[in-house]
Amino acid sequence: MEEVEVVVAHSERVTLRVGDVFLKVDADQARLDVEAEAVALAPVPTPEVLWRKPSVLAIAALRGRRLGRLGEPSAASPAAWAAAGAAIRRLHEAPLPPWTGRRRRDPGELAAELDGECELLVANGILPAGLVARNREIAEAAIRPWTPAFIHGDLQISHVFVDGDEVTGILDWSEAGRGDALFDLATFTLGHERHLGDVLAGYGTDVDLDVLRAWWSVRSLLGVRWLVEHGFDAFAPGCEVDVLRSRM
């Protein structure tokens, strides 16, 4: 008899695995709609959508294994990282999706959100003021006009599956839309800076490294409090707080 595995669970969504089927239960139907549409449009390997019902999306398991996880060394080869970079480039060069997406922030909105979050991190005693101030300074480079691209929006390395040196699929498209391509690249390499060269070799075009690194600070500053409040450990070795400390 198949067992039900809880893959991830918090107040916004739950992902369950039953055999070779994943069930995503989301309080926001719009996120599931975006995911199904993005999977259909993205010019990269994606999981098969088996069926959709209100609040639930069923998808098939992917072949291979995760490229890695935040906070853990990746056993994947440099060629696998480069293949992932090439897949990301294909996505970013694809026609823009018809919806805007959650990651489309103009510079003023991003600056205001970041400043507000930095104040809360210090006021609530989550992070020391010096660490926050230094990373807010670095983050400034990401606050600039950018050309919209088709982005995944939450391109953690755990969402990319490989078999040997081949990318077999990319998961979790609920944040997809129009956004800054460097946000995707920064999310993908967060906490895995040693693989950045392999990723960019596969990506195959010049990238502003100061902006990419600025997005590391942005993503970590904006994520720490949410992670703590939802029961995740942003202070674990190699995770978001370590990323912020590495910028000091």
From TrEMBL:
The keyword RNA-binding does not apply. GO terms for molecular function: transferase activity. Keywords: Transferase. Pfam families: APH. Residues 40-207 form the Aminoglycoside phosphotransferase domain. The keyword Transferase applies. This is Aminoglycoside phosphotransferase family protein. It comes from Amycolatopsis suaedae.
